[in-house]
Design brief:
Length: 116
Amino acid sequence: MIYYALKVFISALLIVAIAEISKRSSLLGSLLASIPLVSVLAIIWIYVDTKDVEKISALSSSIFWLVIPSLALFVALPLLLRQGVAFYLSLGISIAITAICYWLMLAVLGYYNIKL
C-alpha cells in the first residue's frame, strides 16, 4: 500500500510542480510538460513491478502512435482561445477534436494491421 501511495505522490507532485512553474515561466513550464514525464513514470512503474521489457516495448510503441493524434489538442486549443471562444468551451471542443483524431488514428492503424 505504501508503494502505491508513493507512486501517486510522486506523479501528483510532478503535475503540481509543472503547474506552479508554468505560472512563473510558460517556457519552462511547457518544456517540462512536453517531456513525456507521465509516460516515463508509467514505464518505470511497470518495469519495477514486472521487469517485463516486452510490456514496456509494447507500451512505448503504443504511446508513439497515440502521441500523434494528441497533438490536435495543442493546435485546436490556442486557435479557439485566440478566436475569443470561452476557455471551458475551447477546452471541451479541443478534447472532442482530439478524441476524433484518436478514433481516426486507431482506424488507420487497424487498416494497416498495426495492433496496439
